[in-house]
Amino acid sequence: MATSQQLEAIKGAKVLMVGAGGIGCELLKSLALSGFTDVHIIDMDTIEVSNLNRQFLFRQSHVGQSKARIARDSVLRFRPNMSITPYHANVKDPDFNVEFFKQFNVVLNGLDNLDARRHVNRLCLAADVPLVESGTTGFLGQVTVHVKGKTECYECRPKPAPKTYPVCTITSTPSKFVHCIVWAKDLLFAKLFGDKTQENDLNVRSGAAASSSEQPEDVFERKKGEDVHEYGRRIYDHVFGYNIELALSNEETWKNRQRPRPIYSKDALPDQPAKLNGNFELSNSSDDPLPLSAMAALGMKNPQEVWSLSENSRIFLEALKLFFEKREKDIGNLSFDKDDQLAVEFVTTAANIRASSFGIPLHSLFEAKGVAGNIVHAVATTNAIIAGLMVLEAIKVLQNDAKNYRMTYCLEHPSRKMLLMPVEPFEPDKACYVCSETPLTLEINTEKSTLRDFVEKIVKAKLGMNLPLVMNRSALLYEVGDDLDEDMVANYAANIEKVLCELPAPVTNGTIVMVEDLQQEMTCNINIKHREEFDEEKEPDGMLLLGWNQAPPTEKDNNNHVINGVSTSAELPSVEVVDDVDMEISEVAPVKKRKVLDTPVDTNNKKKVEEVNDDDEDDDVIMLEGNNPEYGKKRKLI
Ligand SMILES: Nc1ncnc2c1ncn2[C@@H]1O[C@H](COP(=O)(O)OP(=O)(O)OP(=O)(O)O)[C@@H](O)[C@H]1O
Ligand SMILES: [Zn+2]
Which terminus of the chain is less hemmed in, N or C, by CB atoms within 10 Å? Predict the structure, then answer.
């Protein structure tokens, strides 16, 4: 039962919820049932069929409609007096600025990506509004509290980086199925159906072109008037046959490795003339409500079956054909989407054919989709538990009850009878560039790198700025915004292509560049250090940002797969829990330990935190924290 003070705090509160998905639906329900009366919801998405199993405020008839609006309508049916304001929009839209955030007493995040989480963190810091942050993956979850000046901000601790793979493993020497999936998704699919201007590591020269000195023609381009079946076979033979032969010619590579086997379409499909790949008329007529599917067109129904090489080859060619015949207008704009059936079929079969070449076991479409889409199946109960904990923390925040704030981790198996592990939040990290405005250092070749490299790879990709401005002393070098006059736009357009040392206010060794995000109201000073050379494999950006930490990538194979790049999918806490029971929470730099006693989550917990020695008993639960020395202190909740 809530106390009268708690009820008072709840009644007077104006709450912003960001995200009305799995956690968001549970959260809105819990807020409503706890007595909250004024809730604003931002969500940019519409409802999909796949949401209905756990996002219980939505029904079949709502598919295609705004999540924020339908969530409001559903809750108003049982709490008609509540005020719920929906925004069907991206939280990164400029309208949601610091002024907008200032009207709220607390912000609750139910998001699924790092990018939006970082953005909300910064707005909350700038507006000085407490943030209750959450995340779930399957049975695992966490709730953290971020109050400016009192607890760490969301970005004080490094987040696990998405798993990346060396380019050569993906392009030449795959040894696991996931390598084949990354190749099929990030290289082949991107090359055939994605943005043609993007860099791609696939070999585009055919045998004939390779020996000529003329400008190489891109074999992936469909020739004018080329029959789609012939084209499909040509692509097949190039990537699974010719390219493998080319790789085999480099003897060094295969000295200590199993040699791959080139596969040509005539061998994989000996009895099939090019035109008999399938008959999409059977099930893919244009007014068919079912999604376009190559496997359906070929009469293959079971996504859990592991197809043979020949079946994979047939589906691969059929999928390619369907893209060109039925979705030609999408070609050039596609990026892989796990909810795009034809894309999943294409990637699964391409990965399987490549796997077959390299002696790697083949997988079913269901399994391949899980790997390609980084899918960890959502557990509704975890979302409900996490949403409940968020409300409890929100109530403490509203009462300014700082000594009882808790970060709580939801575990897969009870540990010492605890399924929920409460931990006292950390203080803000003095070295955090976000909440403590600590300067960063950038090693960069100022004579080769352009301002564009700096803005794209550092300011946007690493610092997560949305509307950046770049200054060198009093000279404004670059800015983004709707209200710029023509001269400024032209000026910035010229600057962005310039090498750093040739800018109107040259950026050279020792320069301090100031970058600012006007929407996030965040400023960061970057000390520039000129460096000539960078290691292509280890420092693929050609620059190195120091003072900006990202935890090592997670090891699980079905995490994010990017080739030396950045991905934005959901992440788990940067925490590893080790115990005598077999538990797993996503992994991070194993450095410091912290102790937690058998304390159930207790919102009225008045117990104190005390330092404990490093040599404590072995049978306590040990949490391994991030690699910040501040986290080195062991504490015990008693
Ligand atoms: N930048 C953003 N602005 C507004 N809403 C966002 C933003 N980023 C993510 N969201 C919302 O956060 C919610 C996250 O919910 P959830 O993790 O359940 O994902 P989902 O897309 O509903 O489900 P799934 O990814 O499992 O298919 C989504 O509804 C999504 O639209
Ligand atoms: Zn911070």
Answer: N
